[in-house]
Amino acid sequence: MRKNTIAVLVVGLLALSGSSVTLVQAAALTDEESAAAAADYQKYCALCHGDDRQGHVNDHAPSLKSKSLMSTAYRWHLWFPTAYGRHGTPMAGFFEEVGGPMTKDEIFNVLAWLKEQVDVEKVELSRDPVIGDIALGAQVYDRECAECHGANGEGVTGTALGNAAMLSLTMDSFLRYAIQNGRDGTEMPAFAEKLSDNEIDSVTAFLRSRASGWALEKPVYRSPPAKEDYILNPDAQAPEFELKDDLYVMSADLDKALRDGRRLVLLDTRVMALWQMANIEGSVPLPYYYDGVDKLFDDLPTDGTLIVTYCECPRAAAESVSRKLRARGITNTAVLWEGIQGWISLGYPVSRGETVALKVEDVRSSDH
Ligand code: HEC
Ligand code: HEC
């Protein structure tokens, strides 16, 4: 594990363990840093969180400007999802350590920039656990929350509340504040009027009861294919796809073409950390945030070889890369209709990477 990860984990631990030490003091960004951070935000985050940080543009990514979030989200609350992602949701890790495109400083600056965009007073949250009746909380959850957050907290239009990565890094009081006050500018209602204090405590305690502790993992790094291996089955014939709307290929057709050993290039356009975890065998990671002049575009074949792009759920990133390719004259492109999540749920195979746990004990016993 590298030093900066440990430092950041330690910040999180100190915050969680009730210490008042703040290791990372947010210094104001210089104009230059601020401009770079704004550009990074547009390049990496706007696709889902929106040009104006409003959220819910793709994959129901939450607002990153609500007063409710920005006044209660301490820096490490924003750091962990951005750096390591929330496994099982479309929010991937952007930190270079897990294959993402951003350095620690770049992430810190984007987060500092996000904070600077809103005019909010920090709300001091209690570090005490919220005590409630878990059985009552489960009933409240089913009645009031499951519709938007999913029967198992898997997330629908609302955030995945059963997600271990989220729960293990979130204080009870943070959850309770969101439930009580809602998230302004989004569909998350304030329950202060609708539920009693006891019901709010209980649903918070219920959510907490689902946390499975520290379960942070990071993938064992896999090298992307070399340039000469980009084209699958170079000596074979191209597949004959009937593209829906002249763009979309169905999982069943792609699967058949791959099994028949047809010639094509398969591009995984998600954040690279997701490619590291699981991808369609033979795919090349070319995340949506590479821009048109990036060298990788020059590495792609321009001889009319079909280029199929795919992303998580189901098409936003893949379509954006396909558009960029077409704009650069690489017009024989197709987008996987169901995305890789659809592909997996239809039972088609993926190549999975290994992961290693990021253990709290390792951090504690380290000499930092
Ligand atoms: C592919 C879409 C996508 C992209 C791109 C993306 N996010 Fe997210 N992000 C999500 C989703 C979806 C969630 C909610 C996940 C969940 O259910 O927990 C999320 C959650 C978050 C959260 C947690 C917010 C909260 O309310 O707890 C932060 C912080 C965040 N993203 C920051 C970023 C930043 C910064 C970037 C750019 C560097 C980025 N995201 C890029 C989809 C995305
Ligand atoms: C109408 C849909 C809807 C209902 C009903 C709803 N939520 Fe939400 N909830 C959302 C959305 C959407 C978000 C993300 C808001 C954003 O963009 O920041 C959210 C966010 C949250 C968050 C913040 C998560 C984070 O990481 O920032 C918590 C906690 C939460 N909801 C709990 C609940 C609970 C508990 C209930 C039931 C008592 C509930 N919600 C009912 C839609 C809903």
Keyphrases for this structure?
alpha/beta; globular; binds heme C; 5-stranded parallel beta sheet; single chain; 15 helices; 368 residues; two-stranded antiparallel sheet; Cytochrome Bc1 Complex, Chain D, domain 2; Oxidized Rhodanese, domain 1; disordered N terminus
Q: How is the secondary structure organized here?
A:
Layout: H1 3-16, H2 31-49, H3 67-72, H4 75-84, H5 104-117, H6 134-149, H7 164-168, H8 172-181, H9 197-209, E1 217-219, E2 248-249, H10 251-259, E3 265-268, H11 272-277, E4 278-279, E5 284-285, H12 295-299, E6 307-310, H13 316-327, E7 333-336, H14 339-345, E8 351-352, E9 355-357, H15 360-365
The structure holds heme C (2 copies).
